[in-house]
Specification:
This protein has about 425 residues and is α+β, with helices and mostly antiparallel strands. The protein folds into two domains: about 110 residues, Roll (SH3 type barrels); about 280 residues, Fumarylacetoacetase-like, C-terminal domain (Fumarylacetoacetate hydrolase, domain 2), CATH 3.90.850.10. Strands 6, 7, 8, 13, 14, 16, 17 and 22 form an eight-stranded mixed sheet that branches. Strands 4-3-2-1-5 form a five-stranded antiparallel sheet. The radius of gyration is 22 Å and the shape is globular. The structure holds calcium ion. Calcium ion binds next to loops.
């Protein structure tokens, strides 16, 4: 459990996402000149870092001081360009690493605090480093677990009277996405081109998407594997979840609506998805557990669960400098434990580094919807921007930014941001 009184000797602004209670993991490249100062022979290798305030703690440099010696694991995992090997050590070890770092940064501990020479090597300004994709993402699954989102989309595209399909309240609907096109925050991409059928035409046309959208989502990282044929239960699912990230599942609505029957999303979705660079551990999110929406009708036994399985995480979406939506992860109808239990109930195996996204997170009010499709209601209610312009979907050169944080008893655990700019079509 997070100790709200814990303070670091590193100054942390009260609005920072990264107090000592958070300590998320990421992969970064340090600035060349910083490394060159004390280690001329070394290439600038990507390495594991931990965010604290506006700084990054360099675990590759830190391990050389011997602070992890008592924990008995191969510290070469910090010299890797992804977190997969670190996560593979298991929660017992990764939690112990986090606890050790917490102790090291605690305000009364002089160990590193008073060692100026080591501090210069192991701490980098966050604004000086380049954050990289923190995982080798094995498989990517996208759920459809917000009832408000499913209902809005069903109302627009099918039948307002029967907006939810008959299966929706009985199982967490999902599909297998594509991991090759998942990029880290800050990566820009070109507007996708494809086939679509305009409403006023009998024939499909080819060209750049005219209905490019974002989807406000969160994703969890699988931290423990199963073998083919094994299933994860809702009761032990949390052992398999390492942490969470912000996720923008970019979508081309015009391509999607023409292609998706009968097999579901394909080219309207797989051109790009963006993730935030820091993986916030479930241990850091522990104080923010909440009860989810009541599930009626009662679900089948393999989907039943006990305890609080949702999390109170405030979410915000901006297009350029205009906030267009505020939502919360707590609205999710299906929780992550149910998603994992359902995903594996047939014996499908999961691997360390799999990413499972929530699906668009829409709240109950029109300003809490998690996509432009819903916010501008299929283009019928354009959204006003700060500069006076309007948006039905995303324009070329627009930057979409998503942020998220939990807050309670004066402790704020944040995710940083996921940002991406849409370039004109190639
Ligand atoms: Ca999605």
């Amino acid at each position: 459990m997070t100790n709200q009184k814990l303070k670091s000797w590193i100054p942390v602004d009260k609005n920072s996402d990264f107090p000592i209670q958070n300590l998320p993991f990421g992969i970064f490249s340090p600035p060349k000149e910083v490394i060159a100062k004390h280690d001329k022979a070394k290439d600038i290798l990507p390495r594991v870092g931990v965010a604290i305030g506006d700084q990054v703690l360099d675990l590759l440099e830190l391990k050389k001081t011997g602070v992890f010696n008592s924990l008995n694991f191969d510290t070469n995992v910090f010299a890797k360009s992804t977190l997969n090997d670190f996560i593979s050590l298991g929660k017992k070890t990764t939690n112990a690493v986090r606890q050790r770092i917490s102790k090291l940064l605690e305000e009364r501990n002089p160990e590193l605090r008073d060692d100026e020479k080591t501090k210069a090597k192991v701490l980098h300004k966050m604004s000086d480093v380049e954050m990289l994709l923190p995982l080798e993402i094995k498989d990517y699954t996208d759920f459809y677990s917000s009832m408000e989102h499913a209902r809005n989309v069903g109302t627009m595209f099918r039948d307002p009277a029967n907006a939810l399909l008959p299966n929706w309240k009985h199982l967490p609907v999902g599909y297998h996405g594509r991991s090759s096109s998942i990029v880290v925050s800050g990566t820009n991409f070109h507007r996708p081109k494809g086939q679509m059928k305009p409403a006023d035409s009998d024939q499909p046309v080819f060209g750049p998407s005219k209905q490019l959208d974002f989807e406000l989502e969160m994703a969890f990282v699988v931290g423990k594997e199963t073998k083919l044929g094994e299933s994860v239960t809702t009761k032990n699912a949390e052992e398999y979840i390492f942490g969470m990230m912000l996720f923008n599942d970019w979508s081309a609505r015009d391509i999607q609506s023409w292609e998706y029957v009968p097999l579901g999303p394909f080219l309207g979705k797989n051109f790009c998805s963006s993730v935030s660079p820091w993986i916030v551990t479930m241990e850091a999110l522990e104080p923010f557990r909440v009860t989810g929406p009541k599930q009626e009708p009662e679900v089948l036994p393999y989907l039943q669960f006990s305890g609080q399985k949702n999390y109170d995480i405030n979410l915000e979406v901006l297009i350029n400098d205009t906030t267009v939506a505020k939502s919360n992860f707590k609205y999710m109808y299906w929780n992550m434990c149910q998603q994992l239990a359902h995903h594996t109930v047939n014996g499908c195996n999961i691997r360390i580094g799999d990413l499972m996204a929530s699906g668009t997170i829409s709240g109950p009010t029109p300003d809490s919807f998690g996509s432009m499709l819903e916010l501008a209601w299929k283009g019928t209610k354009p959204i006003k921007m700060q500069d006076g312009s309007e948006r039905k979907f995303i324009n070329d050169n627009d930057t979409v930014i998503m942020r998220g944080f939990s807050e309670k008893d004066g402790v704020r655990i944040g995710f940083g941001e996921v940002r991406g700019k849409v370039l004109p079509p190639k």
